[in-house]
Structures are given as structure tokens and as C-alpha cells.
Predict the structure.
Amino acid sequence: MALTGLAHVSGQQAVEINGVLRNTYLMLGLSIGFAALVSFVAMALGIGMMNIFIYLIGFFGLSFAVQKTADSGWGLFWSFVFAGFLGLAIAPILGFYLAVHPWLVVQAFALTSAAFFALSAYTIVRREDFSWLGSFLTVSFFVILGIIALSFFISMSPFVMLISIFMIVVACALILYQTSAIVLGGERNYILAANQLFVSFYIMFVYILQLLGIFGGDD
């Protein structure tokens, strides 16, 4: 369903959209909570950094599983597995900052939550059509793959700040795009919507934390 021209919806559509929004944000909150729980368990167990290949296979493989099962109860299962996997992956990073600068983690989470709320609220209240961001997100996906590939051959340390800013911009664009798809009636599957928003929240949190670490003097 095209997003353009759907700014004015019927009463029945509004009820459906509100239902999708409610279920999406409930699922998002549960996913964030589950990821945090897995992270703290992993930190308590002393689990170290995940191999990059395992991370990439897990990320894309579990994303594919969520996409393929989103119309069934299995979609919920794979969504939580995906959230738990990302929680496991970020555990060593959180463990480092909690040991050295715990306040940075709190700041990063607060800033991420504030930005997420502001972007979502703006889109919901204004009913803006951000479908045009789809092209940017597609290009960004290939840019990210290129950055990952280059990291195997050259050190990306000099570009950490630029990469972090770029990833935060991508996360913001994804929040606007996905929220717009819901409020304008183009997204009816709350599992897919929550999964996309969870990835956006996760990316933004990780790279805001990294930026705070840079300004805080961490390598």
C-alpha cells in the first residue's frame, strides 16, 4: 500500500493503526528489556567479544527468520531470539563501560530514548510521509557492508567518529521511515515494525555510547 495520499484515514483505519502502534511499542519495550537481561547475564558469566563472522551470520540469519515468520507465532519467538542475540553481542562493550564509566551507559540510554521518543512523536503527530528515506536506507545498507569489508584490510580507527555519526543518522532515518509506515497505514505487522525499531534503537544506543566514550577520552 502506497504511503502517499494516506494522510487522512477513516475511523476504522485509525483504530487499526492505533492497534499496530500499541502492539509495536509493547513488543519493542519487551525486546529492549529482554536484550538488557541477556546482556547482564552474559556480563555476569564473563562472556567475551563475539567473533565478527558469528555476529554477521547471527544478525542477518535471525533477521531473515523474523521476516519469514512474522505472520505467525514463530515471529514472536525469533524476535526475542534476535533481541537476545544482540544483547549477548553488546554485553562485553557494556561491561567495559560499566566498569570504567558507568554514567556513560546511563547517558547513552537516556539520549537514545529521548531521540527515539522525539522522532516517533514528531512522525505520529505530524503524520509525515518519510517513505522517501527508503532509497537512503538502501544505499546506507551497502555503505555499511563496504565499511565492514574495509575493516578487514585497513584500520578504521581514524574514522570512528565519522562512522558513529553516520550510523546514528541511519538509525534516525530508520525510525522515521518505519514509524511513518505505521501511522500512514503501510505497515500492519507489528512484529516486523517492532523488529525494525529495535534495530534502530540498538544501533543508535551503541554509537551514541561510542561517541560519548570518544569525548570521554576512551580509545
About this structure: DSSP finds seven helices and no strands in the chain. The mean pLDDT is 88. The helical segments are 11-45, 52-69, 73-100, 102-126, 133-150, 160-183, 190-215.
